[in-house]
Each structure stands twice: as C-alpha cells, then as structure tokens.
Amino acid sequence: MMNILQTRLIHWKRQWVSLLFWLLFPIISTLLIIQLTSFIQEDSKVPVGIVLQEDTALATTLYESIKQTPLIRVHDLDEHEALAQLEKHQLDSVFVIHNGYEANIQKNSRNHLITSYRSDLSFAYTPVKEMIVSFVQQDTGRSKAAYIVKDLSDTYGGGQQWNWKDVVSKSVDIQKKEDLLRTTFSFTDGSPTASDDEVIQFKPWGLWALFSLLSTLLLFDWLIKENRLSILPRFAFIRISFKNYMLQNALFYTILCIIFDGLALLTFYFVIHEPISLGLIAAMLSYRIMLNAGAFVLAICFKNLYLYYSTSFALVLLFAISSGAIMPIDGIINRVPWVEFLNPIYPFLQNNVVNLWLLLFAVWIISWYVRKEKFDA
Amino acid sequence: MLNIDSLSKSYGKKTILDELSFSIEQGEIVGLVGENGAGKSTLLKTLATLQLPTMGTITLDGMSYGTQRKTVRKNIGFVPQEIAIWDEFTVEENMVFFEKLSWKKKNNTQLKQLCLDMNLEKWKDPVKTLSGGMKRKLNLAISLIHDPTLLLLDEPTVGIDLKSRKEIGNYLKNQAINNGRTILYTSHDMDEIIHLCDRVLCIGNDPFYQEILKDAEKDVIIM
Ligand SMILES: Nc1ncnc2c1ncn2[C@@H]1O[C@H](COP(=O)(O)OP(=O)(O)OP(=O)(O)O)[C@@H](O)[C@H]1O
Ligand SMILES: [Mg+2]
User: Fold this and answer.
1) In angstroms, rounded to a whole number, what is the distance separating the alpha carbons of residues A26 and A208?
2) What is the ipTM of this complex?
3) Does ligand 1 come within 6 angstroms of the Cβ of B37?
4) Which of A66, A152, A304, B164 has its CA 20 to 30 A from that of A120?
C-alpha cells in the first residue's frame, strides 16, 4: 500500500497544479456563484428612503417589514437628507413615517400616517407605495379588530379584561402560525426555501454537488491516461495486477477528495454560514463514494480521452438540468417523478445516505474485478 | 532451463506457431529470427506468460507454466516490442516507479547503476526528451529491476544507432557470461544476431535467413 502510494506521488508531483485546481474547484465555484448572485441582487434592488420619526413598536415593525421585502433596498435617513438624495435620483422614492404613527393607529385615525415623495424618474414608486399601504392597512385593520374585540368583551364579557395590546399580539401570532400564502418554490431542493428574502436562491450544496460531479469526472481521467496498452505487459512482472493498481489508486483519490470535502464543509460554514450536521456529513461521504465509484466505472469504459471529457460534460449538464439547479423543473418532476429518482445527486440533496447508484456502481466494480485480467488468462 | 514441448499457438483458425519443441540452457544467448508476421512476438509473449498456448507445455527450471504461473513470472524479464515506459516521467522516476511495485527491493544507487551499466546516463531527464536509443535502454533496464534469470527481449535494438546497439549487445553478453542469465531475443539485424548469439531459432520456412545463418556457420534450429 505504501509503495503504491509512493508511485502515485510520482504522478501527483507532476500534476499538482491541475490536481489542486480540480480539488478546489467545487468550493471556489460555489462560493463565487453564491457571492455573485447576492451581489447582483443587492445591486438590482430598488433604493427606497425611509424616514422613521418615532421608534414605537408599530412604527419599527412597519420599518422591518419594508426592509425585509425582497426587491427593496432600504436607506434609513432623516427627511432632509432623504429628499436631497431623491432629488439627485439616488433614491427611487422616499416614505416618511410620521411622529404619532402608533398613536394615530390606536386612535383609529388613518390620516397623515405616512408621507411619500417621488421624483420624475421614480419607476417603482407605485408598487412600493402599494406595498407599504398594504402593510399599514394590515396594522390599522388589526387595530380596528382589537377595538371591536375590546368593545365586545366590555359589553358582553365576563370577568376577563381584554386590552388592545393583547389582541394585536395574539392576532400577529395567529398570522404567523397560519400563513395564508405559502410558496413551495424550490431550487435543487425538495423542501420549500427557508426564507424568501432572495429572488433567486441557489442552494450552496446543490451547486457544490454539481461542481463536484464535474471535477471528479475530470480528476478521474488518470484512469484513461494510465490505461495504456503499451504499459500493460509490465504489470505481469510486478507485484500488483493492473486492476489492483487502479483500484488502490482510486482509493487514494477518494481519500484526497474526502479531505477536500471536509474543507468545503468548513469553508461554507465560515464563509456563508451553512450549518454542519452529522446527517450532512454522512450524506456527503456517501455522495463522494458514489461519485468516485461512478467516475471509475465511466473511465474504465473509455479509451479516448476527448470522448470521455465530452461525455463527462454532457452528463454534468444533464444532471444539472434534471436536478433543477439551472432552471426549476417542478413541472417535469410532477409529471415524471422518476427523473428525480434517476438523478444521482438527488439523494445527497435530500441528505440521504442511501444512494441506489452507489449500489449499482459497487456491483459493477466488483463484477469487473472478478473478471479475468487480460494477462492473467 | 527453458523447455518447450510441442507448443502451438493459433489465433482463431490461424495457426501461427505449429508444434515447436526446443530447449535453452542457462547462460545461453539464443536469437530468434523470421520475417515480419512469422510469429516471433507471439512466441515471446507466450514464453512470457502473457498468452496461453493453444497446445503444448512449457517449463522453466522445472516450474510449469500451467500451474506455477506467478512463480514463473518472478523469474522472467520481458522487454516488449513496444516501449513500455511513462513518457512524462524522468528516467529516475520510471525506475523508482517500477521498483516500488517490484518483487525485489533496490535502492536508488542500485537503480542508477543498472542504467549506467548500459550507458544510460541521463538520470534526471524526462523520457520525452530522450532519443529512441535511450528509451530502448530504459525499456530494458526496467525489465531487469527484479533480477530475472530468463530475459525475453522483443527487438530491443530496433531503430537505434550502432553505438547504442553495441552497448546493449555488450551488456547482454556480459549478463549471460557473468550472471548466468539466459537470453532469448529477436532482431532483424543479422550481423547483431550472428555476433551475439550462441544459437539461432528460425521461425517460418524462409530460406533467406537460413542461408545467411548457414554461411555464418551458426547453429540453427529451423521451426
Ligand atoms: N492478438 C492477435 N489476434 C490475431 N492475430 C494476431 C494477434 N497477434 C498477432 N497476430 C497475427 O499473428 C501473426 C504473427 O504476429 P507476430 O507479432 O508474432 O509477428 P512477428 O514475427 O513478431 O512480426 P514482426 O517482425 O513484424 O514483429 C501475424 O500475422 C499477426 O497478424
Ligand atoms: Mg514482433
């Protein structure tokens, strides 16, 4: 084993740049895409100035609601500054939440709660205004309901005293618990996205899985490069058969890949705050072994490098599309569910350790191994 | 040492080797000649255990090819007609690579000496940059790492200059005389064959080779 590792190191010594590149490729590409999409999204959001004149609970909640809207980038400013920026078209529109906002809502007075400003170049003024108005209406509606409940309990209620605050907070609770609208829009992942504060959201692990597929296939070109007819006779006169040589080297590659998978885990944890869990680690290990076994099976079927490369790219593209990482394919999945089932990336994205493909590849490799070797007839 | 008894080899219906019987003694250098396609490589590959004979038995020092294949292999050094080395490696890396996987351990000094013995001095040079002759020498050196007693060489000197040819020839002669190695090798260079070999095996019924060898008063076996 040590000896074979030493022969592998002779190969790696010559290829370390490309080796390192492909090992790091999934990590770097995933981070790049994640950072780039969030950067582009930040840049394409509508800049809106919000002037908050009071810091009561209702006013702050309204402010937070606006801030959490996906398409808006909120600038927190004072009125003077906000209007100056609006004039310079640095802001699309400005909304002033006036002093007395909460008090007015509690008094059930709906006048002069918010003042809005727009410039002649405001293109998103109307939708943003509509949205803010709907937030305010939600608050006033809730407040009004609270007064009615209070009145009712004053008139008919027994000993229990209802106050405005309790009713409002109760109604917020109920709203949270029973969301009327729930979207099940997803990329690469069967579960609904955790929060919809992003317009396009790539799952880092989905991207990583795809890039790993590509890099693993390209890393395993050593099998084709070293499977030379001319060198084969040598293996009859050394300690190790060619099949054993290939299998053990595949093992070294797998160990190397696992080390870099660990690096991916840590990098994603520290850079984009992806949580680490035992389930994820197990699924990752299973996915890695499946990938390498698959690359092994594919590579021993090929003699021509370029044919192998093109097949690899085609496969990655196929799985990228059928996993929904590039475009949503809910429509297809709903009609032909086995598309998902056939995708070898899918179990990993579901944090599943059991992967049918892994089993298939393992059986394949074992049957290949027990078949007689060329020079061992 | 090497005994071949009614050895036949066919590819499908095409019979290449037809009931060959001969034996080679230890320390002998035996040449193998015949026109292109006569079956020289086929015979060498069969004797190197890389192919099964269709019929017949072969033994090396009493070991049967049929039942003791692995042990037989440890005693064979085979130099394939096609150069079998890693192009992208240096001479040193090639030697170390195959030493690591070899039955016999050798240190770097020993490996380097093996190359020097046949005047292959470019230890650190990538194989890509070597001349054809140098590659042939390396091809031979790798086959000798495990100190085999029987050397089967398929055109070890093809396409190389006279000087390298002489160096390889001298090396082989030396191995046979001083180390008692048995050598069976093919070449299309009749001068080399005549100069180097104790006996010559002639495959095929081409009178051309037979006459040249008769003129040189060589001990010829015609098969
Ligand atoms: N694997 C094979 N399958 C079928 N026929 C083969 C195979 N290998 C060799 N032959 C045929 O067997 C014959 C002998 O080939 P071989 O390579 O042994 O000739 P050779 O004497 O070494 O020729 P050369 O001088 O060109 O090296 C040729 O006709 C060749 O086409
Ligand atoms: Mg030949």
Assistant:
1) 5
2) 0.89
3) yes
4) A66
